[in-house]
Amino acid sequence: MNIDDVQVFIAAVSAGSLAAAARRLGLTPMVASRRLAALEAELGVRLLHRTTRSLSLTPEGETFLPYAQALVDNEQEALVRLRSSDGAAMGLLRVSASIAFGLKFIAPIVPPLLEGHPQLRIALELTDTLPDLVASGIDLAIRIAPLRDSGLVAQKLADNPRLVVASPDYLARHGVPDDIDALTRHQCLPLLGVTHWTFVDRGGERHIRLTPRFSASTIEACHATCLAGGGIARLSVWRAADDLAAGRLVPLELGGARPEDIHLWAVYPTNKMVPQKVRVFIAALRRKLAQEGGG
Prior knowledge:
- This protein has helices at residues 3-15, 18-25, 29-43, 59-83, 99-106, 110-116, 133-136, 168-174, 219-227, 237-246, 276-292, and strands at residues 48-50, 55-57, 91-97, 120-126, 140-144, 153-159, 162-166, 196-201, 204-209, 233-236, 250-251, 258-259, 263-268.
- Strands 4-3-5-13-6 form a five-stranded mixed β-sheet. Strands 10-7-11 form a three-stranded antiparallel β-sheet.
- By secondary structure, it is of the alpha+beta class.
- Helices cover 42% and strands 21% of the residues.
- 28% of the residues are buried.
């Protein structure tokens, strides 16, 4: 059985179309169609129902899919172990990260990684949403968030302490809130769709309802609005550090309450085979976080 043909089948299922599978694999649509047809001919069954607009598994395709994935995983694991016995990373690594974190922590580690691993290539996607790792072909996502249960594998990289901050100008005009209940009388700057901020207060969790006049789809916009005196923001320590040191922002005590704990995670599709390129990247990111005190 030709593994290349099997890869086309798996890519078509995850991408939702043969055309998308062809783009992901670097093939023309015609070659991808021929490879899928060759696999179906070899197996003697139809694996996919195909139309110009949709693609779905046949019952035979559903039965074959886990075996197909195992075939590809086993071949890739064997190649990785054979080729990476010296610890070198190779191939294309697709990484997803939030915009601000990617610029501060990931972009600086790319040049030494590429220099140290001549056969490695890196494609960095900066977005504040977690993509579908399987459908998009992402090898690794770096996220700062509470993670919901899913079929993905998550490895904690570091803690990510946060602060509630405001500009001196805002505090001079509106006063300093002395506890978390006082936040309901201030202009808080949450992300779009966020209705509550959660705090740890005297050992328990408390959810403070927000009625913002401004919210934004990115934390960068909340940060910038906070700096401009527009309200109170909840920011990661690493993000606020320069502004705190320069006096552009002031941390709020809030009666000892602190924002709920969240962590920095490395998220990948499966733990059956973690490629050397992923391991090398995570190790480099851990070193960068330790140097910067970030997370």
